[in-house]
Amino acid sequence: MNIDFAPELEDFRAQVAEFFATAPTPAIREAGRKTTSVFAPFKECMEWHRILYDKGWVAPHWPEEYGGTGWSVEQRFIFAEEYRKADLPPLLPQSLGMVGPLLIDIGTEEQKAKYLEPILKGEDFWAQGYSEPNSGSDLASLSCRAEPDGDDYIINGSKIWTTYAHHANRMFMLVRTSNEGKKQQGITFLLLDRVDYPGMEIRPIVGLDGFPEQCEVFFEDCRVPQSGRVGEENDGWSVAKHLLKHERGGGNAASPTLMRYCERARAAAAETLSPFGGKLSEDPVFQRDIGELEADIASLAHFEKLAISGHEIARDPAFPSMNKTINSELVQRASTLMAQVSGVDGLARQLEALRVGSNVEPLGSEFDLISMPLYLNSRATTIYAGSNEVQRDLIARTVAGS
Amino acid sequence: MDFSFTEEQEMLRDGVGKYLEKNYDFETRQALVRSEEPWSQKAWQQFAEFGLLALPFAEEQGGLGGSISDCVAVAELFGKHLVIEPYAASIMLAGAALAASDDGPAQDWLEKVIAGEAIAAFAYEEGAGTAAPDMVAMIAEPVGDAFTLTGEKRLVVAGGEADCLIVVARRGEDGPLGVFLVEKTAQRMEARSYTTIDGRSAANIRFDATPATLLDGAEAALDRILAHAIIVQSAEAVGAMGALLALTSDYAMTRKQFGVPIGTFQAVAHRLADMKIAYTKARATLLYTTAMAESGAVKPRDIAILKGQVGKLGKAVGEAAIQTHGGVGMTDELSVSHYHKRLLACDAMFGSHDYHLRVVGQG
């Protein structure tokens, strides 16, 4: 057994840390600190995206020939660790993490030529049109319909939980093109070049945390070109399953983010009064709570490191589901602890102070400003990308007969 | 980075595993626990022949120069088979303390321990769930060149049978820690033996001005010795968790209620999923911590994380296994309850998960 990263990786780490210390603007740093979701504030996030693109570091997980960095998995892990240590806004996942890798894997040459470069440059931002009001984790039950008509499809129906659709200029979606056979067999995967087609309307939904992060998208006799199809008509399920591999599989380590949350909670607890007197950080119950959480996060980090080292754990068919379950529940626990540390100071609704560049002073510390919105927003982690109940069904199938 | 067992370790596992499959099935083990014997002499001699008793010791001391991951590779199997032989106690703890001292008697005893001719036991626990050596309160009074020990040590695994005891005590009130050797023949010492809930032989031992010899140099190695023993004990626990997961999933897929296997009910399926997640997390932490220890990078906090995680997750897996088995899970007849009791014992010894998780939280 050997724990060490190769020595030259420490040089790499220093190089990454140096760039993160100097490249981001103050607004980008503020956006990073005020990120209370998987989704960072849009404008500053895309500015940072562009800076990373100019450096050649925007898509470490893409193949080098398409603009990736050619880094090893260890380098990518180090990059993620330094990224979190610097509190930088995470890049938005739909374009770089989902539709990009999908097109690289199975898109046509035309699609690659047309879409990949604008994704890398941050000129395009894609929304993901999967869920529907009655199709969440049971995605195969979706009913938003696309009828072929000449070279076009005519779409009728709606999509929901399309994160940041109000910021997007393109959208990928699943539509029903047939009601024959198994419900998975009548689904088609479509790329929409615009989000302002006639008959298409995007309405933001205000979430628990007070922000419009999610959207609902309505289609009424909306005509889109068939050339946006990926794969064959009615074969969209296998395309979506392929994409899901990128959505759940990780490759993006979650533990550095979680450790950073704990560091922030610790620093805040050292400044917070305990109801029993003294500082909260000295309270045995707090110590037990944060210790339990940090130990669990350490186990996730161990799990992630075993996986990137090529250990058999990563070849377990339950790996993506275990990864999703473990890290989504830890995000909730970490944000719960943060809200607990904030206590009464977390109760003020301070949407304006949370805006990047706001001239409204927060009532308390920046930690108090973000802890409650993060807690509220993270109630979604066990719901999206296949609810944790669905993940447990999948994991249980791999236990049976083991 | 590499966290897999080497080819040699897999070969060793294969050999020991086959022996245990054949000679240490659950019924044989139960008959052994019920017998007058504290453990199987035959199995212990076989372990000596496999080289396991010599495994962690340096070649110049008659050992095989094995690493902590060699010991972990084997210890997972000990947990899987609920082995009651005192490997962690006699080899990882008492043996390692003997090996850490240059004194002549220590070396003589080590030679016998490695050969399987003598059993050494480690007297450490004082009743408070002692994990940190700082908390050891027992005092050794200097008498000329030697010392005498007074007080009680508890849960000394193999303490009733041991040919020599390694006792951790303080050299005078508020003095530094010392590691002491007490021979079985020593006067003014009384051992009260019992069987632990997980089938091992242990003793509470009272010392009343009992003559003891200081093992020079051993106290400096104490933290490392305890860390390695905790890793090996955790490996046993992880082995037991893996066995419980397999047993419970087999049971859930065969036991029928309302006309279908109970594993098809979502409530049961999700419990199985949680057991698998817990086992996977515990094993990832075991392997990672082992690799850290092997490279010399392990810190006390890493050991606390391992002990806390394995204790907490092991207990959860044991409880879930009993619940899934229903009434039969409550019986002494099934191995399920015995795995759970092994996990409880591993959790309680050298500091429970509550203790270690708070240590992690203290930063």
TrEMBL record, chain A:
Cofactor(s) for this UniProt protein: FAD
Signal peptide: none
Occurrences of domain Acyl-CoA dehydrogenase/oxidase N-terminal (ranges): 7-123
Domain Acyl-CoA oxidase/dehydrogenase middle: 127-222
One GO MF term: flavin adenine dinucleotide binding
UniProt cross-references to InterPro entries, sorted A to Z: Acyl-CoA_Oxase/DH_mid-dom, Acyl-CoA_Oxase/DH_mid-dom_sf, AcylCo_DH-like_C, AcylCo_DH/oxidase_C, AcylCoA_DH/ox_N, AcylCoA_DH/ox_N_sf, AcylCoA_DH/oxidase_NM_dom_sf, Mycobact_Acyl-CoA_DH
Domain Acyl-CoA dehydrogenase/oxidase C-terminal: start-end pairs: 234-399
KW Oxidoreductase (keyword) present: yes
Pfam family, one: Acyl-CoA_dh_M
Top-level taxonomic group: Bacteria
Keywords: FAD, Flavoprotein, Oxidoreductase
Keyword Flavoprotein applies: yes
GO CC annotations, alphabetized: plasma membrane
Family per similarity comment: Belongs to the acyl-CoA dehydrogenase family.
PANTHER family: ACYL-COA DEHYDROGENASE, ACYL-COA DEHYDROGENASE FADE29
Protein name: Putative acyl-CoA dehydrogenase
Organism per entry: Erythrobacter litoralis (strain HTCC2594)
UniProtKB/TrEMBL annotation, chain B:
Cofactor(s) recorded in Swiss-Prot or TrEMBL: FAD
Gene3D superfamilies: Acyl-CoA dehydrogenase/oxidase, N-terminal domain, Butyryl-CoA Dehydrogenase, subunit A, domain 2, Butyryl-CoA Dehydrogenase, subunit A, domain 3
Tree of life domain: Bacteria
InterPro entries reported for this sequence: Acyl-CoA_Oxase/DH_mid-dom_sf, AcylCo_DH-like_C, AcylCo_DH/oxidase_C, AcylCoA_DH/ox_N, AcylCoA_DH/ox_N_sf, AcylCoA_DH/oxidase_NM_dom_sf
Annotated GO MF terms: acyl-CoA dehydrogenase activity; flavin adenine dinucleotide binding
Keyword Flavoprotein (UniProt): yes
Domain Acyl-CoA dehydrogenase/oxidase C-terminal: 217-362
Name under which the protein is recorded: Acyl-CoA dehydrogenase family protein
Biological source species: Erythrobacter litoralis (strain HTCC2594)
